[in-house]
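re: ur question from yesterday

yeah so i grabbed the chain u mentioned. its 116 aa long if i counted rite. heres the sequnce exactly as i have it in my notes:
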Amino acid sequence: QVQLVESGGGLVQPGGSLRLSCAASGFTFSRYRLSWYRQAPGKERELVASIESTGGTTNYADSVKGRFTISRDNVKNTVYLQMNSLKPEDTAVYYCNARWLAFAHWGQGTQVTVSS
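ran it thru and got these structure tokens back, copy pasting raw so excuse formatting
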């Protein structure tokens, strides 16, 4: 059974940090391109960051460049999103995505709220 389980969300003050984790099971994790998406209330889901299967290439949305870092551990079957210098506009539900050829899997999401 394919599972992606996100954790690490919560409430943080502006300027703070959070580290999201997404633990995968049920598929060959190392083959997959992994991404973090987010969806704020009333907005479309947007791509935040992605990392290729080997971990050598990463991409970021302009809005998070220099603040967020995506990484993966192909032994632990886990992908991470380190979020620093958080802003209120980063408030959203964050989703983990795994994609390989025609196969795509989503996690259930974890809420991140940035507020004083």
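noticed a couple things. The mean pLDDT is 96. also The chain is about 0% helix and 55% strand.
anyway ttyl
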